Amino acid sequence: MSITLESGVWGVVPTPFAGSALDVDADSLAGLVEHYESVGAVGLTVLGVFGEAAALSIAEKALVLETAADASSLPIVAGVGALATRPAIDEVAAAQEALGERLKAVMVQASSADPQVLADHLTAIHRTTGAAVVVQDYPAASGVAVPATVLAAVVRRCPFVAAVKGEAPPTALNIARLTAEVNVPVFGGLGGQGLLDELAAGAAGAMTGFSCPEALVATVRAFTEGGIDAAREAFAPFLPLVNFEQQPRVALALRKALFRERGLIADAAVRPPSAPLPEELLPILREQLAAALAPLQAGVR
Question: What is the reported pLDDT for 208?
């Protein structure tokens, strides 16, 4: 089995909620997915960390997947939150049931620094489900730090791996080491904070969420067509917003509030234990967003 993901921007989709019960807002989700497709994302990543998958019921996860598939023709990567093999297999099976052939791959955490244990884990998931795998190297979520050389060796042993999402800091260094040793695309994440350096290090694009996904798309295209100088020029107006949005503990709430301010979702609510938006940051958020959107609006005119 040899499946690789298309280079470019894979949008990581948050899950909008509505009302006092914080029900999944399928209408807002559909509109957001449509926006990702309209601005040039090559695919969607659903039920990731920023999709608050850990706070969703089984039925809600299926609703999110089905809504994303119905609202867009883009290929979908479904996140798998479980670190252990058997529950991960159950999550993959549920995603397959919800999406069928629309499921391009599943994103599985690199949950062990032992190469044999990690290879066995990934292989068991693939053998049982037949799914292609995106390996997510995200120590902040998994609690596991896997050296790039170890991860590369595991990927080479697993021909069903379709991509790697490299979010282990320093990201540019680890992505450079991975791209030198594997033949599958490696994507950056972390809200685009390291995007320019990650592209220079060989990243195939970005698999992340950002309140202005247009900027990610424009930057990756600029790099492909004109190199790092063109990418830097495209991304520079958005870097203050990227930095603002990725603040620890409130990044999810900030991103949702920014999507709400843009009219892309109806409500910025997050589910506990995620921290809600501090009201003191709302005026700064609006100023940052207005400054970032100015070049986009000028381009429309």
Answer: 97
